[in-house]
Amino acid sequence: MNQTEKISGVFSTQEILKVGTGTTTRKSIRKAFWFCAEIDSGERAGSIEVQPLNANYVPSGPKKAIDRERFLNEFAPEPEFYQSTVFPRMREITKTVARGERHRNNGELYSAEMEFNNALNLDVDNIRATFGLGLTYMARGENAKAENILERIVKMEDAFDQEYKHLYNEFGIQLRKGKMTQKAVAYYKRALELSSQDENIYYNMARAHLDNQEPAAALEFLCKALELNPGFVEASQFLLWLYNKKMLPEEKKQELAAVLKKAQETVAQATAPAAPASQPGDSAAGAESPPASNS
Fold it and tell me: What DSSP line would sit under 134-179, residue for residue?
């Protein structure tokens, strides 16, 4: 393989095993298949991310990064196997999940459940299908089933990658709206362990704490959201709502004077008729609306 060629596809490794003892000892070769892709950016750029194929020949389970030199020494390309078996299975799962999401968006919740389960039968760790199934159960009010999905999600580190940001934010929002506020707080805590610089998670954590009758905790997380993004419109509105409802501790008001002033400026600019439109992603990519003014 050309040293500068970008690596992507299915590869195999071989392990020699000894079977038996003494004079009956014999060697056997165990072959394992992996989906491999070169990492483009970040600290691990140039390394190869490898993920095992499961019994259904789809990438599933934990990923790990290895250096390019080791990869070229230990992994052999399997292009025909990828084209004939792995790629069609991956495409099947993608289409099945897309059908599930379409059914869920249309309110066809039992059809959505069937499609998400079909995808999970092929890949039990499929993140989109797992989130989709959990959101489907919450939409049907089946909180016990949703809690089982929640327990599965919090163990899946990849579930909190930026790729799935809209899904994990939506999942947490629905937990809160479903009155599962303690579960929502625990869920967001896990999300912050894996994505600690996302202001939207801090904001949504603040909403969950407010519903839990914990305004001091809500304020703490709200301030962190504004520290990460001082121009966060929804967070600024939320902070002003707390202020107007006299929910800010007296001893904190002086300390928060500058933050409150910035929040007022942010909201005024966002609501002014001549204010420029926000750029995509500047505000609530998954953040909830602030509390209603009459709530």
Answer: HHHHHHTT-HHHHHHHHHHHTT-GGGGSGGGHHHHHHHHHHHHHTT
Chain center to CA of 70: 30
**pLDDT per residue as tens digits for the range 82-99:** 999 999 999 999 999 999
Q: Please, which residues have CB within 8 angstroms of residue 209's CB and are 6 or more apart in sequence?
A: 185, 215, 217, 218, 221
Contact at 8 Å (CB) between 66 and 50? yes
User: Which CATH fold topology does 191-272+282-295 show?
Assistant: 1.25.40
- Tens digit of pLDDT for each residue in 113-172? 999 999 999 999 999 999 999 999 999 999 999 999 999 999 998 888 888 888 988 999
**What number of residues does the chain have?**
295
CATH 1.25.40 location in the chain: 191-272+282-295
Q: Kindly give the pairing relationship between strand 64-66 and strand 48-52.
A: antiparallel
The predicted pLDDT at position 80 comes to 97
Q: Would you list the DSSP string of 21-56?
A: SGGG-EEEEEEEEEEEEE--SSTTTTSEEEEEB-TT
Sign of the C-alpha dihedral computed for residues 38, 42, 46 and 51 taken in this order? negative
**How much is the pTM?**
0.80
The amino acid present at 61, given as its one-letter code, is G
pLDDT (tens digit per residue) in 20-55: 676 677 777 889 999 999 998 878 888 999 999 999
Give the DSSP letter string of 195-263.
Answer: -TT-HHHHHHHHHHHHHTT-HHHHHHHHHHHHHH-TT-HHHHHHHHHHHHTT-S-HHHHTTTHHHHHHH
Across the range 212-226, mean pLDDT stands at 93
Whole-angstrom distance, CA of residue 128 vs CA of residue 109: 16
Specify burial of residue 114 (Cβ count, 10 A radius: 0-12, 13-18, 19+). Answer: middle
Closest CA to 53 of 25, 28, 85: 85
